[in-house]
Design a protein that fits this description.
Elements (H helix, E strand, L loop, with lengths): L2 H12 L7 E10 L11 E2 L1 E14 L4 E6 L6 E4 L13 H12 L7 E7 L9 H16 L6 H16 L6 H8 L4 E6 L5 E5 L5 E7 L7 H19 L19 H4 L3 H25 L3 H17 L6 H10 L5 E7 L6 E7 L3 H16 L4 E3 L8 E6 L2
Parallel strand pairs: 4-6
Antiparallel strand pairs: 1-3, 1-13, 2-7, 3-6, 4-5, 7-8, 9-11, 9-12, 10-11
Helix pairs in contact: 2-3, 2-4, 3-4, 3-5, 4-5, 6-8, 8-9, 10-11
Bound molecules: alpha-D-galactopyranose.
């Protein structure tokens, strides 16, 4: 990221070089294991990526909000006179939803100019939206001395996404981009929101993210369908135990599910959630023991469960995963994020990384006609001010 160039773009767009903007950054995230567990009160294990969203922001005299981004040709202006409504435009709803959360909490917002730049690939399941929300939240918190702690900003961002944008996501993404810690993964209990940072020491292995580059069309409706199926499972299990979410059952209780859940689809969904929680707990243990081989096996099992029981993969993700596993040096590989497209995350021996990427790229292109992209991310700290006023 060339910050001088970014600042130059800001002045080209908004003029007045005497009024300096401030730079903020929020990462994207990759989830190592623990998928579709967050909204079931379960465990997740994500980390924050050096791919993220940069924001230059400054105060202005007029009572206006001006939004622009380097990524799309879609600027917007909004007058500050009460709460905002969804604009039906793509990305502007993310900052507007966050601003609403500040307004609802009676934080007085004055006129602002925003310029965003994101290098999280769009729609790739690496939380570009949570990243835009959190960078906006930390910037407003800072500019208006609102004094919210990170957890509150995370919750406000999730609310913006749930209620304003209309995507009924869990808390993992906003939490990961808010609480990220350099070179650490975050083990999070999504029910209690207690968490633990765990150093992600991969020795002679590297973390590789592969983008299917499949456009995620039906993700939101399928996501909501999965949520409803999990709610159904909870309802059916209540005669057995008065649970409020599926994660209150442990892996030792999986065999009981068949007795209470006769619908085979709902049964498989519940099985995934409970077994996945078990895998995350084991993944935490083996990572601390530096047993990367076992960590990789758990990643593989996670994908199999997401394919067979939760049914959120698809030909593109499955091709990357099952063809990837045949390549020497692959320790573990699975889909990450909501699924149906987006990315896989893999742990690969460093000495085989190049071979993994070239071989998998060819096979994937032959099978799907799509060109994959590979990222070798750094794990970074969560959203914050970059500590400089651009001159
Ligand atoms: C999306 C959602 C998250 C989580 C994952 C699946 O990324 O935003 O809250 O549910 O899918 O694990």
């Amino acid at each position: 990221m060339d910050t001088n160039n970014f600042a130059e773009k800001f002045f080209e767009k908004y003029g007045n070089r005497n009024n300096k903007p401030v730079l903020f950054f929020s990462p994207g995230r990759v989830n190592l294991i623990g998928e579709h567990t967050d909204y079931n009160g379960g465990f997740v294990f994500p980390c924050a990526l050096n791919y993220g969203t940069y924001l230059l922001i400054r105060r202005i005299e007029e009572n206006l909000l001006r939004f622009s981004t380097i990524n799309f040709n879609e600027d917007s202006e909004a007058e500050l006179k009460g709460l905002f409504l969804n604009t039906h435009k793509r990305w502007i709803n993310y900052p507007l939803g966050v601003i609403n959360e500040f307004l609802k909490r009676e934080i007085k917002i004055s006129g602002l100019e925003f310029l965003y730049y994101g290098d999280v690939p769009n729609g790739a399941g690496l939380s570009s939206s949570a990243s835009i929300e959190m960078v906006t939240a930390v910037a407003l918190n800072d500019f208006f001395n609102a004094g919210f702690d990170t957890l509150e900003l995370v919750k406000m961002s999730q609310k913006a996404e749930n209620e304003f944008v209309g995507m009924n996501c869990g808390i993992m993404d906003q939490f990961a981009v808010g609480f990220g810690k350099k070179n650490n993964a975050i083990f999070l209990n999504c029910h209690t929101l207690s968490y633990e940072n765990v150093p992600l020491i991969l020795n002679d292995n590297s973390l590789i993210i592969t983008n299917t580059n499949k456009r995620r069309g039906l993700t939101d409706s399928k996501y909501n369908e999965r949520r409803r199926e999990c709610d159904k499972a909870v309802e059916l299990l209540q005669p057995y135990k008065p649970i409020i979410n599926l994660s209150e059952l442990n892996t030792g209780e999986i065999h009981l599910l068949e007795k209470y859940i006769k619908d085979p689809v709902v049964l498989r969904r519940a099985k995934h959630v409970i077994s996945e929680n078990g895998r995350v707990v084991e993944a935490l243990k083996v990572l601390k023991e530096n047993n990367i081989i076992r960590f990789g096996e758990l990643m593989n099992q996670s994908h199999d469960s997401l394919k067979e029981d939760y049914e959120v993969t698809g030909i593109e993700l499955d091709t990357l995963v099952y063809e990837g596993r045949k390549i020497p040096g692959v320790i573990g590989t699975r889909m990450t994020g909501a699924g149906f497209g987006g990315c896989t995350v893999s742990i690969v021996r460093k000495s085989y990384s190049a071979k993994f990427m070239t071989e998998l790229s060819t096979i994937y292109q032959n099978k799907t006609g799509l060109v994959p992209e590979f990222y070798q991310p750094e794990i970074v700290d969560g959203a914050g001010r970059m500590g400089m006023i651009v001159s």
